[in-house]
Design brief:
By secondary structure, the chain is an alpha/beta fold. The chain has a single domain, classed as 3-Layer(aba) Sandwich (Rossmann fold), CATH 3.40.50. 43% of the residues lie in helices and 15% in strands. Helix 3 runs parallel beside helix 4. The chain is globular, with a radius of gyration of 18 Å.
Length: 168
Amino acid sequence: MERWQGKTALVTGASAGIGYAIADALARSGMKVIGCARNTEKILELAKKYKSGPGCVDAVQCDVTKTEQITAIFEHIEKHYKHVDVLVNNAGIAKYDTLVSGRTEKWREMFEINVLGLCICAREALKLMQKYNITDGNIVNINSYTGHFHMNLSNLSIILALSSSFSL
């Protein structure tokens, strides 16, 4: 972790769970961490822990389903830190609805957070990395354990049949 001391990281979903633990570990290792989430209360508490170093935590409110909030975070980063060296795309949710009974608004929310939010954050981080010639930056995309195995959801065969009937 010595390589990252003094470098800047953005951690999405930093208010709880894995995101909180990552923000804490990065700050403990000497990084400047921008922790973002819809609710920043826990991140503000974490920031107090690092008032005297070795790293620091900056809590910034952001709903990754809102493009304007994501771009505002990157404007904040450029103004105060110039760029990010590490982006940890951690924000994510899971909605367990079947194809037959699923609610479109729940699927849309999951897609906006887990896919679009991740992509927009990556795009904006890459823009700053390129602008400031960061050649050793890293983007880490985190998914849940459920992303690593087949979930036995009813009506899954319908999804597979529909997807296999279309070609790109």
